[in-house]
Flavin-containing monooxygenase
Amino acid sequence: MVRRVAIIGAGVSGLASIKSCLEEGLEPTCFEKSDDIGGLWRFTETPEEGRASIYPSVFTNSCKEMTCYPDFPFPENFPNYMHNSKLQEYIQMFAKHFDLLKYIQFKTLVSKIKKRPDFPVTGQWDVITEKDGKMETAIFDAVMICSGHHVSPNIPVDSFPGKYHFVNE
């Protein structure tokens, strides 16, 4: 029996997760709430609710040898430190080269993930998705959350006593 894996997000980590699942003989299904891959690196003029994005002038701050997928180097003609559009181009090349797009359900929001009632025995999860106003539930043997950490701010208020009394002069 092939084990099914839900992957949430089709950015850099989500794409690597799809590929890794395939290499391990698993059956991945990736849910991406937008209409394209790239996650954070996919710049859009108009911000999308619940999706972090870079600004138009962003360049990578790590060299291409450190940024690339280990088994898919950047093309030689790409600059060492590149504009976000070149990184997005590379991400698309990676997905196309390994034929990953067919495992992605675009414009699909994962609204809930919960352990199944028989989880102690099966280890399975219910993944509830929404697409075009229609809710669906699917059963998976594993779930990988690859949605990033740049959307919701994490402000450790308790670590900064007096933070709300600070006055900017």
